[in-house]
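quick one: adenosine-5'-diphosphate bound model?
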Amino acid sequence: MSALWEDVLRDPPAIREAAAVAVDAALLEGVLMRTEGEPNASDVVNYAPFTLLPSAVPSALFEQAYAVQQDFNLLVDAISQNREFLECTLASTIKVDDFTARLFRIHMQVLEEGLAQSVFLGINRSDYMFDCGVDGAPALKQIEINTIAASFGGLTSRTVAVHRQVLKVLGKSKEASRLLPNNPSHGLALGIAKAWELYSSPSAVVMFLVEEVQRNIFDQRCVENELWNRNIRVIRKQFRDVFEKGSLDDAKRLYVDGQEVAVVYYREGYVPKNYDQQNWEARLLLERSRAVKCPDIATQLAGTKKVQQELSRPGTLERLLPGRAEAVARIRATFAGLYSLDVGEEGDKIAATAIADPDRFVLKPQREGGGNNLYGEDLRQVLGKIRDSPERTSYILMDKIKPQPAMNYLLRAHSPLQVSQCISELGIFGVYVRQGKEMVMNKAAGHLLRTKAIEHADGGVAAGVAVLDTPYLV
Ligand code: ADP
Ligand code: MG
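yep, here:
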């Protein structure tokens, strides 16, 4: 695997020439981000970081990841409708994790009131690494599934063209033609458009709920533009706008600033720092409404790390997906070892094992967005401190996945051109729409490959660690 592009990697002048072409191609294709200094203005923009060369991905694992995506869509949807499962699974976590507890309280309140929403839209991204097991053959192992604000479906729709051109400049036209087309933004928009249509109010809008800091706006614009092309009106609002100008009518139709909202697409609301008291009130208002939330709060909870860990217990998948033995087998094949730190003997034992051998594990809190997990010595220290306290139940433990590194260049604005040892993470976008009990759409909508230098244990593109990439199937 690491031998891919070896000839090119030994040719620095060719690399420099290709890198210059690559950066301009990225700007031309719209692989863009706003700058850190001016995250809310488009006067100055730069290219989003990306690899110079596409990275090798084993084609069998790539196909496996696509083949299991509809199963994961069904699973997430089933969890979101299973009140008892969410209640039992999150019981220990919500005692110690305030953020999950607040989400859970809204979930319960909305259920007590009775759901006004009848159309459901899920957009998720299931992320994997290629683990080199003892026999050396790589295996597809899930890192996590993101059920809220899964990003980069837009920008990654535009990176293939960049890598095609780079390969051509490097004299590899044949290889360039082998890069697969990929357009998640189209697939995500299809789901949003379907939900909008089923909501059945032609004058209603799709509302992108966005963060205060909007560096990654172009990624969202790719999806927005797909909706405008279908003559669906899109508005961008923040929690603050909803708090100040949002209301429900007698039928719980949602109005924001005088406009009826058919679909709320969250690109915000996934971490504690997104919320103050007003934002929590806005979130509750949205959840109580009839509008299609992508995701609804139950689906957000279905994406917590605690749920992921409980899914790996024998029998759980079978209970959640009765009569779907093949789907269960496909899903289970992607699971790495996951362990509960709940109070009790099971938790005591695995905590002791992890403290003794921290490099085998990753310690994960109930957080999203990168940079929260603990590894190695940090893991040992933190877990050592809380091993006898209920606080440990706010974390889960996971086997550390160890992919085979490969050489590549990570292109970042204002950074020197230098070769790095890299590992990649493959994400598959899933989209589904359910009306009442009936699934009316269930698709894999494209992929995202992110690559980072091996010295970073954690972190995605938005966290400034990983960069966009394109798979080259081998
Ligand atoms: P987040 O919700 O913060 O994105 P993730 O579970 O995706 O949390 O972890 C963040 C990053 O940490 C991943 O993108 C990956 O690089 C690394 N990571 C997570 N779990 C593992 C694991 N089990 N083995 C190796 N690396 C991991
Ligand atoms: Mg992640």
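The chain has one domain: 12-336+401-473.
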